[in-house]
Amino acid sequence: MMPLISDKSITPSSENKPAEEPKKLKACCACPETKRIRDACIMENGEENCRHLIEAHKECMRKMGFNI
To answer: In angstroms, rounded to a whole number, what is the distance separating the alpha carbons of residues 23 and 66?
Structure first.
């Protein structure tokens, strides 16, 4: 009887790692555009006056795969 799965069809785990690369991006390096604008607004106007920019940055972070 022939095996159902040949040794050639099994891929080593190292070949699956490129799919995980985006998660290696650090939170501090993600979304620099929205982060810079958010931070400047908070410094000048206070957090309570920059809620829309804070939410825009959070949305960008979520799109990058972060659970915020």
So the answer is: 8
Rg (CA), the chain: 21
Boundaries of every domain in the chain: 32-64
- Whether pTM > 0.85 for this model: the answer is no
Which residue numbers belong to the known binding site? 28-29
Annotated binding site for Cu cation: 28-29
Tokens of 59: 């949305």
What's the pLDDT tens digit per position in 3-36?
555 555 555 555 554 444 445 789 999 999 999 9
Measured distance CA(33)–CA(52) in Å, rounded = 14
